[in-house]
Amino acid sequence: DSGVTQTPKHLITATGQRVTLRCSPRSGDLSVYWYQQSLDQGLQFLIQYYNGEERAKGNILERFSAQQFPDLHSELNLSSLELGDSALYFCASSPGPWYEQYFGPGTRLTVT
Amino acid sequence: GIQVEQSPPDLILQEGANSTLRCNFSDSVNNLQWFHQNPWGQLINLFYIPSGTKQNGRLSATTVATERYSLLYISSSQTTDSGVYFCAVVNNNDMRFGAGTRLTVKP
Asked: Would you call B33 and A2 a contact, using CB atoms and an 8 Å cutoff?
């Protein structure tokens, strides 16, 4: 157990809908990261937050957004969902930006 | 952006054998991590190793940053070592993963 929690574990929704994925970092970690793993694109970095502020952006679509709250948990919002958004979404945390990261169990999103 | 290449893409071993997995990267990196993704999809942190050598039980890793590669050694492999091994590098405030090495250890 990495200490990073993610909810829900599975999510099935329809095209055009909006979903929110939630992540709680390990105790004491200030940085939170979001990643997408799909069969065709592999593992991709989406976005990083540090102590509530956005620190780095990767291949995150404009339809996707994230935030980190004062209690350090983070949410990833995916809107106008398309079939191609079906993937495993991971959250990770670390004490600071780009320190050693620990991954949560992931949320499997299926868009039908 | 930085390119990350892992080799071999697939590896099949008999239990007890040793193996070496390689990760090449095309530019300087701020840090490098090795992960194991088990058959249930969980990503497990193996090493945080921007340079030098580290060991943890049957696993060890070496990163030669000046030559832009890292190696992961697995000795006396066990069936529980099966899964996909990823290296990930940080460069220019971005993290990139290799495509992974799929390891199958047969009893």
From this structure: no
Kindly indicate the confidence band of residue B93, based on its pLDDT and cuts at 50, 70 and 90. Answer: very high
Distance from CA of A77 to the nearest CA of B (A): 21
Other C-beta atoms lying within 10 Å of the C-beta of residue A33:
28
Helix (H, G, I), strand (E, B) or coil at A11: strand
The pLDDT of residue A102 is above 90: yes
* Residue recorded with tokens 């088990």: B38
Query: How many angstroms separate the CA atoms of A7 and A21, rounded?
Result: 6
Rounded (to 5) percent helix, strand, coil in chain A? 5, 55, 45
Task: Quote the minimal CA–CA distance from B95 to chain A in Å.
Answer: 6
pLDDT given at position A2: 86
Contacts of B24 (CB under 8 A, 6+ apart): B4, B5, B6, B7, B68, B69
| Strand, coil or helix: A85 | helix
Altogether, the residues listed in chain A come to a count of 112
pLDDT digits (tens, 9 = 90+) for B12-68: 999 999 999 999 999 999 999 999 999 999 999 999 999 999 999 999 999 999 999
